[in-house]
């Protein structure tokens, strides 16, 4: 269900479960926070927050006449080693979309800085050709053994229709490429605009696209990152939509304002009760496997492999996110 990179994360395990359960490496993106790349003030503020992912933006958060400034400001940041204040965050960049004619210049500036960004976010992906274009540029620009995580944005109808082939191409080209597909972002604002839909309180106009995006993500073992709640002062609504997204299978949510971060980070973190349920279940599962039993009863419910996988997901996320 989740993207796995290596097993070296096992060192972070709590002592109590260290010898019983393994934890798979997981780079969390519960809150993916946009910061306009031309705003040094906001960037400085963001680096001091307790947030999983900071997306330094060259795209829609930046005015057309500030694109050069954003690119230069972000490149200067990437020329310095990442400084961890609150937690080891994902230092990500969102480049302009391929159709804009600005993407190549963004990639050239950002992938040749002294340190690579951890992740490149590519908006408005529409086709396999977009992925091929991206792979060619990234592979040519990144030197040596460098590799970046890759986040695909689905934010218009043609992108959604082609999303299966897009993900297939990304996963296949990554085998020999310098990028690793990690997530799909649902860009609901652009999606609404492209659809000609009117945003409503319950978001019914986006339901199909929101569900299909999470479905495609999970089919390719990618994280699924839910829509922005643009009414950033409405923190009660934000919590409600986080809970709804998490129930649908989303693993995180895009945010635009610091006040949104703690609510989102908390909403996508499994509770201590869930974690204890999961570790207890995994321990029992290991014991029953040794005895040759595939199915068994745990806390009154029948458990077999699918429930074990859900429990493992909870442990992975909990362990990777709890440490500041
Ligand atoms: C659909 C999409 O593509 S979404 C992605 C593109 N959009 C964006 O990136 C927008 C990001 N967000 C923002 O720029 C801002 O939050 C706005 C414009 C919406 C509101 O900004 P403000 O009016 O300054 O909000 P507010 O006064 O409440 O901000 C409080 C503090 O948080 C800071 N802040 C606000 N947003 C951010 C942010 N995204 N990152 C870092 N710091 C931020 C402000 O600078 C301010 O700090 P300061 O007083 O020390 O300067
Ligand atoms: C986040 C974003 O890019 C969108 O909703 O369009
Ligand atoms: Mg968008």
From TrEMBL:
Enzyme Commission number, as recorded: 2.3.3.9, 3.1.2.30, 4.1.3.25
Cellular compartments annotated: Mitochondrion
Names of required cofactors: Mg(2+)
Recorded catalytic activity of this chain's protein: propanoyl-CoA + glyoxylate + H2O = 3-methylmalate + CoA + H(+); (3S)-citramalyl-CoA = pyruvate + acetyl-CoA; glyoxylate + acetyl-CoA + H2O = (S)-malate + CoA + H(+)
Keyword Ribosomal protein found: no
GO molecular function: (S)-citramalyl-CoA lyase activity; hydrolase activity; malate synthase activity; metal ion binding
GO cellular component, one term: mitochondrion
Superkingdom of the organism of origin: Eukaryota
GO biological process terms held by the UniProt record: regulation of cobalamin metabolic process
Occurrences of domain HpcH/HpaI aldolase/citrate lyase (ranges): 30-258
InterPro entries recorded: Aldolase/citrate-lyase_domain, Citramalyl-CoA_lyase, Citrate_lyase_beta/mcl1/mcl2, Pyrv/PenolPyrv_kinase-like_dom, Pyrv_kinase-like_dom_sf
Keywords: Acetylation, Hydrolase, Lyase, Magnesium, Metal-binding, Mitochondrion, Transferase, Transit peptide
Entry binding sites for substrate: 94, 155
Residues reported in the UniProt entry to bind Mg(2+): 155, 190
Subunit organization: Homotrimer.
Protein family membership: Belongs to the HpcH/HpaI aldolase family. Citrate lyase beta subunit-like subfamily.
Cited function: Mitochondrial citramalyl-CoA lyase indirectly involved in the vitamin B12 metabolism. Converts citramalyl-CoA into acetyl-CoA and pyruvate in the C5-dicarboxylate catabolism pathway. The C5-dicarboxylate catabolism pathway is required to detoxify itaconate, a vitamin B12-poisoning metabolite. Also acts as a malate synthase in vitro, converting glyoxylate and acetyl-CoA to malate. Also displays malyl-CoA thioesterase activity. Also acts as a beta-methylmalate synthase in vitro, by mediating conversion of glyoxylate and propionyl-CoA to beta-methylmalate.
Protein's name in the database: Citramalyl-CoA lyase, mitochondrial
